[in-house]
Amino acid sequence: QVQLVESGGGLVKPGGSLRLSCAASGFSFSDYYMSWIRQAPGKGLEWVSYISSSASTIYYADSVKGRFTISRDNAKKSVYLQMNSLRVEDTAVYYCARPRFGMDVWGQGTTVTVS
Amino acid sequence: DIQMTQSPSSLSASVGDRVTITCQASQDISNYLAWYLQKPGKPPKLLIYDVSNLETGVPSRFSGSGSGTDFTFTISSLQPEDIATYYCQQYDNLPYTFGQGTKLDIK
What we know:
Distance between the termini of chain B: 36 Å
Number of helices of chain B: 0
Radius of gyration of chain A: 13 Å
Oligomer: heterodimer
Distance between the termini of chain A: 36 Å
Strand order of the largest sheet of chain B: 2-10-9-4-5-6
Strand content of chain A: over 45%
Number of helices of chain A: 0
Radius of gyration of chain B: 13 Å
Mean pLDDT of chain A: 97
Shape of chain A: globular
Shape of chain B: globular
Number of strands of chain B: 10
Largest interface: A-B, 21 and 25 residues
Largest sheet of chain A: 7 strands, mixed
Strand content of chain B: over 45%
């Protein structure tokens, strides 16, 4: 079935780095744009980044621009989020999601704690 | 960025009640609006896209309406399993912003 599985979260000190991965299955990954969305503890949803199917179009929220880098490997059916210069306020569950009409497929999320 | 103002922020209702949540965009987003349900510890689930289209498998008691800047999400008869937080999201312009959420519980 259609599935997204995130990995790579963990505990990191302020100023540190993490690389999140999201593995897709059950659909033609190379045909779809992909997004990362995060949710701080007890808070709402914040859209983080977006990459087109060919990686020719990339967009970031202002809160992460210059620190985070989204990329994808269509052969591996995976999308990545390289997070540098992490801040306490980046602490959140990070979800990858498939933007279609709205976000129709979501992963279970991976937790990033910056402390 | 487009601001999405969702109200109310919390809501208590009884089983069988009709429940309505509103979402207002800071500018015209045409029909590029989605509604999600999120239960604790789970990812959001898409319920409605393009204002009023029900995602496959979503019960018909859920519905959406509106256009331009003002949108409404309705549960026609609240069920116990509908207890969750609901979010609207615009996907007309990047960044694809969310409303702040409506926490719904049983009275």
